[in-house]
Amino acid sequence: MSIQHTIWKVGVQPVSLSTAKLASEQALEDMIVREPGILSNEWMLIGRQEQTGFGGRIDLLAIAPDGSLVLIELKRNKTPREIVAQALDYAAWVENLTTERIAQIFQRYSNGGSLDQAFQKRFGAKLDEETLNESHQIVLVAAELDDATERIIKYLNDRDIAINVLFFQVFQHGADQLLSRVWMIDPGETQANVATTTKAKGEKEPWNGEYYVSFGTGQSRSWEDARKYGFISAGGGGWYTQTLKLLSPGDRVWVKDPGVGYLGVGRVVDPVVSVNQFTIRTAAGEKPALDVLSTASRLRERADDPDKAEHFVRVQWLDTVSEDKAVNEVGLFGNQNTVCQPTAPKWRHTVERLKQRFTRWGN
Question: What span, in angstroms and rounded, lies between the C-alpha atoms of 164 and 180?
Answer without folding.
Answer: 17
